[in-house]
Amino acid sequence: MVGWAIALHGGAGDIPMDLPDERRIPRETALRHCLDLGVSALKSGRHPLDVTELVVRELENHPDFNAGKGSVLTTQGTVEMEASIMDGKTKRCGAVSGLTTVVNPISVARLVMEKTPHIYLGFDGAEAFATAHGVETVESSHFVTPENIARLKQAKEFNRVQLDYTAPTPKLPEVSGDSQIGTVGCVAVDSAGNLASATSTGGYVNKMVGRIGDTPVIGAGTYANHLCAVSATGKGEYIIRATVAREVAALMEYKGLSLTEAAAYAVEQSGPRGCCGLVAVSANGEVAMPYNTTGMFRACATEDGYTEVAIWPKN
Amino acid sequence: MGRWAIAVHGGAGIDPNLPVERQEQAKQLLTRCLNLGIAALRSNVSAIDVVELVVRELETDPLFNSGRGSALTENGTVEMEASIMDGTKRRCGAVSGITTVKNPISLARLVMDKSPHSYLAFSGAEEFARKQGVETVDNDYFVTEDNVGMLKLAKEANSILFDYRVPLIGCAGAAVNDSPLQMNGLPISIYAPETVGCVVVDREGRCAAGTSTGGLMNKMMGRIGDSPLIGAGTYASELCGVSCTGEGEAIIRSTLARDVSAVMEYKGVGLQEAVDYVIKHRLDEGFAGLIAVSNKGEVVCGFNSNGMFRGCATEDGFMEVAMWE
């Protein structure tokens, strides 16, 4: 019997170290709050699927992270949300893309996993499914925040997709410290070795309508098996081609690396500096939170009492 | 200069009672597509281009479940998906929810080459297609009479039906109860998905892979399977190119295409061993098959299903088109 462990993230990216307090503190508080929620649930014996879902729901509801409310906007100023969830023991999984009215995309992903013979539903079909299951929906405007309207405007002014790494152009000036990037996610393991991973996002600022990133792609943004559970964040296109989440588990299985080594290697190999981060837990109750970006909003806790809430590397 | 190799597939899991004329048609199509690819390889066309042109041919022919001839959604419409990957720099492109684009694999290629993203779906993908001036048609173009019949059968059986090409009369009803296969806990009547795919390694040792499908017969609107998911239905690296077919959900769970490459990369084994390993150990209770090539000019097919429509050829003259073990 090993101890439980939980880790969560609110996005990896170029989070400036001089992020003003009024932007930093609410996010740190939210991370701590979500961590407490998750720890409580684990202590009461909830299954990691329940734990990761409830933590991600909380992060989706928080407007300062790029998921659910607070999602970044497509090039048309709309919100298209995606999410996925995976159970390590059975490798059952669920994913959704293109949600526009569902308050908690991660819960729809879970419903797809549990209530359909499929794994992944997208767009109109996903919305129809959500409605048919009585999932909470709202007007799309609910998800749009003034900061994201500003971000979209800025991205359009530069006439390119934010975080577009393909063209060698000068760095975008940040919108008062752009801390709204990436994705949210949570991984957890209980004392019985049950593992789960859940990830949710609004995607990229100014993304093309219909663009799908790594978050709903099992093996890219989310993965869990009997060894570990992983949730990745960063530049979706890199995470997809490097199958980052799967990579951590594959390195453990095929090369016998430890969680820490596998997670670090997977991030390192995913692409150039600044492209991704992840949180991972192992069946043995270990935690890893590597990233090759300036920072990653993150938090973790293990049964032996260790907790951490952080944004940048510890000095 | 290395040697080229190519493989094509038309789906894993074949009804043992499939009428002989269907079997012949399938073999002829696979042979034709293989020859197209071989001719291109002999003229030094690059792996990624060969993959695209061969999959286009498979999509255009109504026989298999992709492009025209795609399986139908629960609403009787067609929603196609495809993905393509270039092993050299692991660039990739994918599309889902395609309803008017004649050749989804080419749209996936455009996503890879002409957009800042890797994966576009539904109306966004269709909009991109229009902007790129890609050939589009009405959705009924893709719908065949055979499949309209199949959908009716599937609804009557009230279960998910893989694209099953058996005459509607006679054995269909009996066959429905014959194999109580399960998928995510729900019964499947018949197993024959007929997704198409192609993998190629060219003389430069560059590997590429592509997969295209209409998905499951009677699928829910918006259902996305393994074919457009990089790492599940399609993967290519510096070492190999892989395209999978079969129970989509099992392929996704096992990240089947990615695992072939991962096993080669991290365990240092060759293509045959990697394919055998993933088929044996990665599929849990799922049924699927795959075709793969290596940068050394090898080609391997592997499946744990009841047969797989496939064809393969190598530069030293080997060529085979097969369905069963």
TrEMBL record, chain A:
Which keywords does the record carry?
Autocatalytic cleavage, Hydrolase, Protease
Which is one GO molecular function term here? beta-aspartyl-peptidase activity
> A GO BP term, please?
proteolysis
Question: Taxonomic lineage of this organism?
Answer: Eukaryota, Viridiplantae, Streptophyta, Embryophyta, Tracheophyta
List the catalytic residues: T183 (nucleophile)
Q: Which InterPro entries does the record associate with it?
A: Ntn_hydrolases_N (IPR029055), Peptidase_T2 (IPR000246)
Residue ranges the record marks as coiled coil: none
Q: Which CDD domains match?
A: Asparaginase_2
Write down the EC number: 3.4.19.5
Q: Where is this site: Cleavage?
A: G182, T183
Top-rank lineage group of the source organism? Eukaryota
Q: Which Gene3D superfamilies match?
A: (Glycosyl)asparaginase
Q: Name one Pfam family in it.
A: Asparaginase_2
Subunit structure, as described in the record: Heterotetramer of two alpha and two beta chains arranged as a dimer of alpha/beta heterodimers.
Asked whether the keyword Kinase is assigned, the reply is no
Q: What is this protein called?
A: beta-aspartyl-peptidase
Catalyzed reactions:
Cleavage of a beta-linked Asp residue from the N-terminus of a polypeptide
Claim: Hydrolase is one of the keywords in the record: yes
Automatic annotation (TrEMBL), chain B:
Keyword entries, A-Z: Autocatalytic cleavage, Hydrolase, Protease
Catalytic activity reads: Cleavage of a beta-linked Asp residue from the N-terminus of a polypeptide
Record field: transmembrane: none
Q: What is its EC number?
A: 3.4.19.5
* Site feature: Cleavage: E194, T195
Tell me where on the tree of life, at the top rank, the source sits. Answer: Eukaryota
One biological process term in Gene Ontology: proteolysis
Q: Which InterPro entries match?
A: Ntn_hydrolases_N, Peptidase_T2
* Any GO molecular function: beta-aspartyl-peptidase activity
Broad class of enzyme this protein falls into: hydrolase
Q: How does it assemble?
A: Heterotetramer of two alpha and two beta chains arranged as a dimer of alpha/beta heterodimers.
What is this protein identified as? beta-aspartyl-peptidase
Lineage, highest ranks first:
Eukaryota, Viridiplantae, Streptophyta, Embryophyta, Tracheophyta
